[in-house]
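Final report, closing paragraph on structural work. Over the funding period we assembled a curated collection of sequence-structure pairs, and we close with a single example.
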Amino acid sequence: MNKSNLIIFSALLMSLSIACSPKKTDKTLAVKPLHVTEPVQFDSDDPAIWVNPEDPAKSLVIGTDKDENGGLYVFDLKGKIIKDKTVKGLKRPNNVDVAYGLMLGGKKIDIAVTTERMTHKLRIFSLPDMTPIDNGGIPVFEGESGEMYRDLMGIALYTSPEGQIYAVTGRKTGPQDGSYLWQYLLEDSGSGKLKATLKRKFGKYSGKKEIEAIAVDNELGYIYYSDEQFGVRKYYADPAKGNEELALFAREGFTEDHEGISIYKTTDTTGYILVSDQSANQFKVYSREGSKDANDHPLITNIKVSTNQSDGSDIYSKPLNDDFKHGLFVAMSDNKTFQYYRWEDLAGKLLKVN
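Its predicted structure, as stored:
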């Protein structure tokens, strides 16, 4: 074979090799979780991370099992179900969040709060024991007409600089006039019982689908929520600062629904806002501190993940154990599980790692 024919033959072999090579798919490019939880019974939906202040390695993940006979499942950092802490028999619990240091009966306790959709109540449990402290549930959205206007979905807890704890609640549908979300102060009734006092109604709504995912940035004092198929809206977390919408971002590039929101904090004022692009099986990452100003949140990158149709998520930005030295990201997947990711695996070379 002469030199010219050899070159042509080599080129043909290379073309054949490329044509026969398997193409990289979204699944092969997706970041893999370190652990996947044991499955819940019915329908996993939303997780929250409780950090044990005495030993972070003994921290917990609480996840909702969204069914009319659902529950709050409690997992260890390997994803194993802790049966004696798991709560069953809740009426379609949707979302869950945690807060630290609620003053009740003369002592401070940590709490997990879930939205019980079928009863229109907040269910509240002390941590880490998961003992109910709500006297059977606290009703919210009282006085609203129509079942769907009281059909609880989203929950996020805001802790003020003074230590007051607020529950920011959303529902299946609501008015477009700026009162979709209701914010309640959780406090001792004066007799060691827990009560919720309505402090404000706020939040615009596009009318496109619904509002479920809500996240609070305690340090900076902001509330973010996903107006599905429209964008992410931002408000002050302190009711005294008013109901002005501060930002509307994440308007473009979503396949369908805007879902879970989580905030990775590199310092008290910097970091990243992760928003689930649910049908694309990825999270879009935005600047927490903004670029031009504090309310300008540009897109930084997209992170493909192994979760399928991820709805709820939560993140912790500091070390927990040898598995999670730079933070833990937990995301729901539609196979009844929650997936645990190391932050450094998600961050790659582009994002900062604590």
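The chain has one domain: 24-347. The mean pLDDT is 93. We thank the funder for supporting this effort.
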